[in-house]
């Protein structure tokens, strides 16, 4: 983010320094991450399947939650919320959106993606190259871990932690050592797809929000090839939006019930959607 300006009165500069990160979602970056090779794409290439949606259920969601990571587990939602000084780990009642349990993340961290694996919760931070491991039942912080680059989205296939960093690269980490086991580069018809944000592992595929769009991409975890795009445009109605409403972000999957949940940053609602081929 550019400086507010050297010639402004000191009081105004200080106010802007506080308010600008809040209203811009922390100002991730002015220029999105880039990838070597072909120009990146942020919408489907010709020939790639596109899906639309049908809303099955709608539930309340905390409008003050800047959703960065979302996980469904045993009838409740686990949620990571971001922004400096406002980041948290939450246990949320699905039907009401009520926060049942919460841990505040230290103010120097901007919390990001979240994954649940083997009774532990793994939470990323954006630029600190630091992640947190919690006991899933108590939310007790057990340890921290390190990774290279930025942290954006996190999920698991039951064996590895799967991490996105805003580029077209997705890394698979060992959950014990956090070493990179392998990585893939995500592409649609050979062109890189960047801004990969919140992740969820669904029926053997990786689903990823494409930041600043209404799209989720479906990714083959073996080779990074995009198998389809999900167009969620219009999901949150104009009547449900206000000046704070931010982008679509947040995917959770109930494997037992085959239910897909989506929401967004500062959204007042969370949706269960059923995917359908787009005409």
Q: What can you tell me about this protein's structure?
A:
This protein is mainly β. The protein is about 5% helix and about 45% strand. It is built from one helix and 22 strands. It has an eight-stranded mixed beta sheet with strand order 16-17-18-19-1-22-21-20, with no helix packed on it.
Q: Give, in order, the helices and strands.
A: HEEEEEEEEEEEEEEEEEEEEEE
The CATH topology is Neuraminidase
User: How does the overall form come out from the CA principal axes?
Assistant: globular
**Count of structural domains:** 1
**Main beta-sheet strand count, sense and barrel state:** 8 strands, mixed
Q: What is the strand arrangement across the widest sheet?
A: 16-17-18-19-1-22-21-20
CATH architecture assignment name:
6 Propeller
Q: What structural class do you assign from the helix and strand content? A: mainly beta
CATH homology superfamily: TolB, C-terminal domain
β-strand percent reads over 45%
Mean pLDDT, to the nearest integer, reads: 89
Short description:
With 279 residues, the chain is mainly beta. It has one helix at residues 10-23, and strands spanning 50-60, 67-73, 76-81, 88-93, 99-104, 111-117, 120-125, 130-135, 141-146, 153-156, 161-164, 169-173, 180-185, 187-188, 191-192, 196-202, 205-210, 215-219, 226-231, 248-254, 259-264, 269-277.
């Amino acid at each position: 983010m550019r400086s507010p300006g050297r010639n402004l009165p000191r009081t105004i500069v200080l106010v802007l320094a506080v308010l600008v990160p809040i209203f811009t979602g922390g100002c991730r970056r002015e220029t999105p991450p880039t990838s070597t090779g072909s120009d990146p794409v942020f919408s489907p290439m010709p020939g790639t399947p596109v899906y639309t949606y049908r809303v099955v259920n709608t539930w309340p969601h905390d409008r003050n939650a800047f959703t960065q990571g979302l996980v469904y587990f045993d009838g409740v939602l686990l949620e990571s919320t971001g922004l400096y000084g406002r980041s948290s780990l939450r246990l949320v009642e699905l039907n009401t959106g009520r926060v049942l349990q919460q841990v505040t993340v230290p103010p120097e961290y901007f919390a990001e993606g979240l994954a649940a694996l083997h009774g532990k919760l793994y939470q990323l931070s954006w630029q600190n190259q630091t992640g947190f491991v919690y006991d899933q039942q108590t939310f007790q912080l057990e340890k921290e871990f390190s990774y290279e680059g930025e942290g954006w989205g996190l999920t698991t296939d039951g064996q590895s932690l799967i991490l996105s960093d805003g580029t077209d690269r997705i890394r698979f980490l060992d959950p014990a050592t956090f070493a990179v086991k392998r990585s893939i580069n995500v592409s649609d018809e050979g062109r890189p797809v960047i801004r990969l944000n919140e992740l969820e592992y669904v029926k053997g595929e990786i689903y990823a929000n494409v930041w600043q769009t209404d799209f989720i991409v479906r990714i083959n975890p073996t080779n990074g090839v995009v198998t389809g795009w999900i167009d969620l445009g219009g999901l949150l109605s104009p009547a449900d939006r206000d000046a704070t409403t931010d982008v679509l972000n947040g995917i959770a999957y109930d494997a037992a019930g085959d239910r897909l949940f989506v929401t967004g940053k500062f959204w007042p609602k969370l949706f269960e959607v059923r995917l359908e081929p787009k005409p």
